[in-house]
Design goal:
Chains A, B: InterPro entries: GntR_C, TF_FadR/GntR_C, Tscrpt_reg_HTH_GntR, WH-like_DNA-bd_sf, WH_DNA-bd_sf. Two copies of one chain form a homodimer. Chain A has two domains: 65 residues, Winged helix-like DNA-binding domain superfamily/Winged helix DNA-binding domain (Arc Repressor Mutant, subunit A), CATH 1.10.10.10; 144 residues, Four Helix Bundle (Hemerythrin (Met), subunit A), CATH 1.20.120.530. Helix content of chain A is 63%, strand content 6%. Chain A has ten helices and four strands. Chain A has a three-stranded antiparallel sheet with strand order 1-3-2. In chain A, a hairpin with a 3-residue loop joins strand 2 and strand 3. In chain A, helix 4 packs across helix 8 and helix 5 runs antiparallel to helix 10. The N and C termini of chain A lie far apart (70 Å). The structure holds a DNA duplex.
Amino acid sequence: MLAADRPTPEVSLVTQLRAYLAQANLPEDRRLPPERELAGLIGVSRAELRKALDVLEQEGEIWRHVGKGTFVGGRPLDTFADIGALARRSNPTEVMRARLAMEPELARSAAFMATPADIAEMRLCLARSRQAETWRQYEGWDTRLHRTVAEATHNALLLGLFDTLNAVRRAVTWGRLRVQPVKPAPDHHSFAEHERIVQAIEDRDVAGAATAMRTHLQTVERKLLARQDQPSEG
Amino acid sequence: MLAADRPTPEVSLVTQLRAYLAQANLPEDRRLPPERELAGLIGVSRAELRKALDVLEQEGEIWRHVGKGTFVGGRPLDTFADIGALARRSNPTEVMRARLAMEPELARSAAFMATPADIAEMRLCLARSRQAETWRQYEGWDTRLHRTVAEATHNALLLGLFDTLNAVRRAVTWGRLRVQPVKPAPDHHSFAEHERIVQAIEDRDVAGAATAMRTHLQTVERKLLARQDQPSEG
DNA sequence: GCTTAAACCAAGATGAAATTGGTTTAGCAT
DNA sequence: ATGCTAAACCAATTTCATCTTGGTTTAAGC
């Protein structure tokens, strides 16, 4: 381009762009023309335009995404976490790792925050799971025990995260048939491990609660890897 | 079809279908062939097949959806984690506690799984955050650093949980304006703390990474409680 | 050296066509 | 009439090819 086109080089392209953004009436979604087009409109090279857009993006005045375009304003936050999509991208191994990352910390927090009512419910779940006549019943009480621990943190966000994790776990684990006609053996590893978790929480043993939960989940992981016909719950 | 093909009409089509479901090895998603095809396979009319499928659906053994297909097992729960509702029930304190529960474990896992590319991106975020000219810019790089750590776990589920946590954090923190004209001081506590986190991850020091992240978040928590006019990020 | 234009890439949008469960209709045999 | 079958039709959904778009690389040009 000729020098005469830009008689005032001290007026930076960034400023020029800001002026354009203010003047141009953009569509409802505040999307501005594609870079190639915009470069032609303003009369600069695409590379130069992009450098200016980089600045505006750093400033937070615009946001860009490949395939979508460039938009004025802050990046919109998606208000929903899609469990299904998450489950599709994940797998049983990842679920196990995620449980190992989260649940010990939930147990730790529960040991701090649990009320007597929380602990009573945990003990109820323990007892019912021992009385279970089928694996399905056992799984129900097992799931409820783990959720009670999450509830005992008395933190709505942590509980929500646990529920999300749990929903993904169920979605991921769904396919595998578990035709276990027999009921859990009285010496099933989970009974003692669950007991230790609840006891640690009752004793306000924060480190012990986390450790007990981690140990428990590691056992579940080992069984899960060894034999696919075992329930994946724990 | 000839009567000879079905010499035992008392064996209902439903039973026959159940046998088929047990025997056939279905794809990962447990989807069975389209009705038209399945009808041909079994050798019955589509109408008759559908009547049997109706029973199985009633029993809860399968579920169907137009355009999708027919699947064995329970209908997947289409629960979306509602970030907005979660944010409404939560508060900054809970968010902080949730970060303290999750992010050290993410750092620990990242120390295991991070690739050189992950670490390079972390270092980039570090450098940019130091160069930030405004708090807004700093926050952007800080957020990106923390998310890179979550990415470095190479666990889609953990990343999803982190994103959910982060979305709630942003939603909860929404109201508070932070008009901090000055840029972060060169000795801002987070610089050194972030550096320690990344270094531990690079050194494959799993315990150190978790500890560094916990220490960092505790500092953020302290600052947050002491002075509301500080950025809540860290 | 620096800029520019062009090519290339992968993520996302778009739209036509095919697929699929659900429903209706017409034919046909009993 | 009754009951079954095949075919057509419908709307929801997937699939696939194509286009768009920001991001990146490359090489020519000055």
